[in-house]
Amino acid sequence: MPAIVFIQTAFIGDLFLSLPVVLRLRIKFPDHKLILVCKKGLSEIFLKENYFDQAFEAEKGVSESYSKILSELKKIDIDYVFCPHRSFRSSLFAFQIKAKNKIGFKNAFNFLFFSRTVEYKKSWPDVIRQMMIVSTVDSDIKNKIQSSDWTYLNFTDRTEKFCEIPEIFSFKKQVDTTHKNTVAIFPGSVWQTKQWTISGFSEVTTELIKKNKTVLLMGGPSEKNICDEIAKNNPQAINCAGGLSLYESYLKLKTCDQVICNDSAPAHMAASLGIQVISIFGPTTLRLGFRPWQNESVVVENNNLTCRPCGAHGHHQCPEGHHRCMIDLKSESVLRKI
Predict the structure, then answer these.
(1) Are residue 105 and residue 196 in the same domain, yes or no?
(2) What are phi and psi of 236, to 5 degrees?
(3) Residue 127 phi/psi, 5° resolution?
(4) What is the DSSP string of 27-84?
(5) DSSP for 160-178?
(6) CA-to-CA distance for 74 and 98, rounded, in angstroms?
(7) Which pTM value belongs to this model?
(8) Looking at the structure, do residues 140 and 196 belong to the same domain, yes or no?
(9) Which structural domain, as residue segments, surrounds residue 328?
(10) Is 115 helix (H, G, I), strand (E, B) or coil?
(11) Residue 295 belongs to a domain with what CATH number?
(12) Contact by Cβ (8 Å): 279, 267
């Protein structure tokens, strides 16, 4: 069976934003095996949910792990390599794979590594940016992409709602979120400046419990302390932080009808399941293209600052020294959106 290799060695949130592309590849190439190359520890969800048939995990900074993957890939008949990750290492890795076609984004050096490259549209949502790669082999996607400037999908209208995502670009796998009455709260982030205040999350948790909602406090081991602080004031909340694997957290989300989080991976994980997301944006803005990719999603942000965005991802410390993008956001603003 011929194969397609999909290289996405960025963060877990970026992998979830790649899923509409992966779903499209399934439609376009039903007789091909889909192989994922991702960061260590991230493949389980995507294999068990049948997005990919096989996966290889690369350990960042360990060249031997990439060499081992290349050795295994040499045994496989590969038709296509798609690489939405724009790092030099990923491009060089794609170059070393024996394949008939290799497709990635244009930059100063990628013409050396790929047989075809496409423009990276900075103003477009990330899902559609990634779809540009598929457009080189899918005429329906190409025609759809060329039919509009998709920048508008990054932003909300006067009623603070996002415009509807065209079905061809959307997540297809969804869960039934009716009558579940359960809210998952993810208060952490890899980047400290992306984290809303503990007091804010705690106040929101309190109000949700008053409305008879079941509240799950969630996150990895590094976020357990934050969830523990919230749980002190809200003993009725179910504190799952640090006690679930990544895949177990994904399964737990299927029991929820709403997720409240920062601009972080849980927003994209929930959106992939069709669950409504209330995402709190601080140092980042919608203009960067990483909104929750779900029609009913809501974003809360402080639009009264000229220092936003201060970077594409966030920082460990506020560059301005005040962190007003998060500190000035009160729980009333988030509760109003909920």
Answers:
(1) no
(2) -80, -15
(3) -60, -45
(4) HH-TTSEEEEEEETT--HHHHHTTS-SEEEEEPTT-HHHHHHHHHHHTTS-EEEEEE-
(5) S-BPPPPGGGS-------T
(6) 7
(7) 0.95
(8) no
(9) 182-337
(10) coil
(11) 3.40.50.2000
(12) yes
